[in-house]
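Entry — protein

Goal — fold tokens:
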Amino acid sequence: MASTAYSRPSKPPGPAPGDRRAPRLAKELGRIEPKKLGIGLVAGCCLALLTYLSFARLFAIYSPVFESTSLVMKNAPPANYTKTPGAEAQPVQEKSQVEEEKEGPDAETDPKMSNLPEATKTEDEEEATVTKPSGGDTEAKITCDENGVDEGFPYARPPVCELAGDIRISPKEKTMYFVNTSGAGPFDANGEKKIRPYARKDDFLLPGVVEVTVKSVPSPAAAPACTRRHGVPAVVFSVAGYTDNFFHDNTDVLIPLFLTASHLKGEVQLLITNFKPWWVRKFTPLLRKLSNYEVINFDEDQGVHCFEAGHLGLYRDRDLIISPHPTRNPRNYSMVDYNRFLRRAFGLPRDAPAALGEETGKKPAMLIIERKGTRKLLNLREVAALCEELGFAVSVAEAGADVRGFAERVNAADVLLAVHGAGLTNQVFLPTGAVMVQIVPWGKMDWMATNFYGQPARDMRLRYVEYYVSEEETTLKDKYPRDHYVFKNPQAIHAQGWPALAEIVMKQDVMVNVTRFKPFLLKALDELQE
């Protein structure tokens, strides 16, 4: 169902037909002199032409034809968005003010409200912005953070550049022109700085990320003329790489974007390279929470967008971790702040888990994430029955493409249980103080279990319980003899690199010993009582 923001009004603005008087032209023609009649006819033709242009312009703005061909490129609402019956068409707003605390319904979470932030400016406004100079009195400045090394963590951070001054972004040329009279800055001999703005420095995937060039030019005349002037900073970033894996959606895009832009309170323009319409639709609520403006498709836009400040690339920390840092995180954001941001963006109601004993007869809710591919919990039904026996109200679900729907299920849980994998990233939707239980497969997985999910859970102020399967609880025992290095020296698998790890460790399934597992479930119950 189309958004109300793009619905054509039931009637054009103007006086109702019943308000007009009946024409008396035929009666009066005989009284008018021919010369005056000719002048009157010319004036009437002009009036008719103006009326036609007005209606043509109205149709161009509201026509469903424009909607069907450009809705995705204008940051369309999620595919499951439905128009409320009886809702009237809402005028398209250039922006909506984002507040820290909203007293009324939130347009980002209330399905009864129009959910499309900016449309286009009027023709008069666009013509004015074309001739308006960019970067009036802002001093030209560029700083780049290229300290990508993180001792103790194997993934280097990509460079990020922050600019101020006269900045002219030409997506067609994949170039950010930077008016820089001094010529100073981190540029090569050609006055250029090239960056692939994806927030994971991975040599395997970076060649597939669009390369954007910051080009230093000596004067405004050496840069292309502005076709659109923005009064807010720009953030240019990529959604290439491993996106569509929920772990990487967060670690490589959403958390870095939060870290880079959330302090701007929505007053920022996002420009996305390697544009994926389905990805933008999937995370529309989060993008709208970060920016009051429609996303610009960097791959197809033909204009020249002018700014006085901007970022090329995104700041990032470790995976699912945000730590204090003087340049990457000067405002000392934490994962608790990120979780709160997600809850507001998706309209999730619970900030804390249920307290045991607070309601008579009410059981703590446990959600078990089911895996259908690799690392399946083969005796899931037996585990679920044990959890019910211990006093949990258990539900089982598989994480899917409906991020908001699954976020609501996770937020309703007091305990989240899953085998190690991307599904555990959904801990970001748990209420603060809830419990996460990670079942860690065989294969010396302690570093990955701790750094990818365990420590992040603690940083989110969740209670964390981990269970390491024994060699008797893995299907690897059916593939390899007990004297194989898979059991004798599993660290040797890691020494062979990711291909061996993916082929051996990541493809196993587990069948936990419920007698051995029971004390860990009791610990989860104890954590809820503290």
